[in-house]
Amino acid sequence: MSVEPEAHVLGGESQVAPGGLSTGATPTTRGERRALVALVRRGAIGTGGTRLVQSAIAVVVAFALGAVALAANGISPWAAYAALASGSLGGAQSLASTAVQTAPLLVASLAVGISFRAGVFNIGAGGQLGVGALSAALVGGYVHLGSGIELVAMAAASLLGGALWAAVPGLLKAYTGASEVITTLMLTYVAANLIDYAVTGPAKAPGAINQTPQLSGPALLPTLVANTQLTAAILVGLVLVPVVWLLLFRTTYGFRLRMVGLNPGAATAAGFSVRRVGVSVLALSGALAGLAGMLEVAGVLGSVPQNMSLQVGYTAIVVALLGNNAPAGILLASAFLGALTAGSTTMQSAVGVSGPFVVFLEGIMIGSVVGMPALVRAWSRRRRGAARKAGAR
Amino acid sequence: MRELQLIDIDKRFPPNVQACAGVSLTIRAGEVLALLGENGAGKTTLMRIASGVTRPDRGLILRDGEPLTLGSPRDAIGHGIGMVHQHFMLIPRLSVAENVVLGFEGEGRVLDRVRLSREVEHFSEKVGLRVDARRRVDELAVGEQQRVEIVRALYRGAEVLILDEPTAVLTPTETDGLFRVVREMAAAGKAVVFISHKLHEVSQIADRVVILRNGEVVAERPPTTPLGELAALMVGRPVEVPSRSEAVARGQVALELSGASSSGAPGLSEVSMVVGEGEIVGIAGVDGNGQVALEEVLAGVRPLSSGTLALGGSRLERVSPEAIRRLGLVRIPSERHRDGVVAPASVWENLLLFDLHRLGFARHGALRVRAARRRAEQLVAQYGIRCGSVDQSVGELSGGNQQKVVIARELAAEPSVVVAAQPTRGLDVGATAGVHESLLDHRARGGAVVLISADLDEICQLSDRVYVLYEGRVTGTAGPDERERIGRLMAGVAA
């Protein structure tokens, strides 16, 4: 077997790619897919320090451009950002709301980050999250166990559901070479339809609303702070941060995973099976994404509704990139994006900024994270050129 | 033209490569000037400046005292300076004649191919470099392509001809042919600049040897200078060239390939060879004659379509990289960046890559980072790997040190057979000596080495026996001292 690292791990042959990462998917060109691959690649390397600076600059650039966009629409950026800050950080309620938004995002982003580390592009965390949520909701709604055990069973169901959902693209990639970028993404639509089928048919709760049976008591995560939606979900996320770090950097599996991600050629020569790592990492990533779904259902939603939003799966890609696929970075980035989401409601009502504005900010952040290295290079080239001219005079 | 002078040339490549630092050089008509230096010494950059490809940051170029401004290769050839690059700049799908005249077709709108071919053929005969002007370039052997490059430079009126590592791709016979041409051109009053890092070639062809090191001219010497002195000037310190000791008693058969065929371009066809314990078996051949296929077959990454591979006397039923490695065969891959190192990962992680489970760095799935780093530090000291710390990423090391990482890792696995594929390609003299020493050590300890190399000097210097690959077949075997025979076999001529 001749080893073609790019094609092997990145599925370089595919023609279709996710378009707007945050707003859903449209089939696009090979060029955009290349850009995506390059972007994730870039996210996988670079030292922590420089990446942190780059991410910070990306955030600043996004806010600055956002300010311009707001001002152009006759809205005071100052007032809008103040509302954003107060809605996410101002007071206990706001902080709780940020933490509520952060929890599933953090777990889903860890899931995405793990797969990116292995050079596997799990773009469909949303779908795995949906299947995980559905699995948890079914166990919680129909199988009644004692308190404590109930939640464990739901978590197990979500892990398993997400893992199986993601293992399908993993196996397709390993045995047919189908690009996981396409298959994970497309399975997200299948998942969305599966959920709608379940909540309108076999798993429909009694009553008028299309949803799974309302969870109660032992099937809900305990609330941490009275009168808020803040539940133990955030604790699960916080515990997973060091766990994922240990997995990546202190286990042989994590070592293989990272080496395969960094250079599949050398990893193959070393006898690591790129195929096995690819399948297992997708399953693992899917399991975590599924768990994020359980946290949403048992922590916030209480049931799986029709048209459940799988947006978190896409936002998780932004978080993983901003966080350099490192658990600590992902924690910071997910808290940040969680705050953005939490504050956006306040911003909407206070100054009349539309909801998609936050998505717009996310988009600019991706753009600047991706463009930053190139910008820095161009800038330093220009500076050198100027210096040379000055010296020549 | 009598002479071309380069005065005080500076060239810096960001961020911190000083390719040329105040280099001055005179190239005279009627002589062969050899530019000798290690990889990265600045030879090629300097000549790219002289031929208008690269612009210097500072410095003057004078032709018979007249300053020249060379904005492009076209400017340079206008002033009679032509360069034959290491990677040929020919258009494969065009004919020889078309390639020769490309960009210099002369006046008129219609390209008269017949007249053109005739003209190019006449010209090539006149300069004593016969080429078949009608053939397509991609049908030609590498040596012929090089001849086309030279004809093209001369056709455009080159009086200074710069040849960048011209023998790297040639068989010994082709090399001899090239040397004759070079001598004739010098005799006809042209100036020839011969870039090389091969000492014996330089002393054979040059009238004058200028040695470059770290972007500076360090010395000028006559070609009669002892090779050891030239080497020391080139490297900046005395170099001991490791030499092969007397044959170690031949032990058991370590590796046997019989009737092996594989895919590839070219793949192997019906290759049989035996490698014994305590010997280095060289695989000679011009690049692209099945070396990659052989390397990958031996490492288990390319399957055999027919034939068998046996290690330590037992035939392998299922060939896989893991199985082969378990049986004690390791590889120093020719594509170091693709197969050898994980560049963004640290030194210790790279040293661990293959020995994750073998040496107990894994305990119940946990990685024993501290133990792995300790061992990495030992290997770094033992093999003289120059790095800031074992946490530095391998991609930041020099090529020689990257190769040391690979070799340290592979030899630390205490293999019985080492497959070393182009192990010194791109390395400087010092690093090369280190690699050779490691291979000879392995042999002295009774290990077997398969040395696949396009560098015939390396093959002859290290090998106990030589197989020659030509178009995926073994065309013959030879002793390390039978250079001419090896050369004929490399060219596909029955010896």
- Assign a percent range to the helix content of chain A: over 70%
Evaluate the radius of gyration of chain A: 22 Å
Mean pLDDT rating of chain B: 86
Helix content of chain B: 25-40%
Integer tally of domains of chain B: 3
Taking Cα atoms only, what radius of gyration of chain B do you get, to the nearest Å? 25 Å
Based on secondary structure, the structural category of chain A is mainly alpha
C-alpha geometry of chain A? globular
Please provide the count of β strands of chain A.
0
Main β-sheet description of chain A: none
Q: Summarize model confidence as the mean pLDDT of chain A.
A: 81
How can the largest sheet of chain B be summarized?
6 strands, mixed
Number of helices of chain B: 17
* CATH top level label of the largest domain in chain B: Alpha Beta
What percent of residues of chain B are in strands?
25-35%
Total domain units of chain A: 1
Number of strands of chain B: 22
| Class computed from helices, strands and strand pairing of chain B | alpha/beta
SSE pattern of chain A: HHHHHHHHHHHHHHH
Q: DSSP helix count of chain A?
A: 15
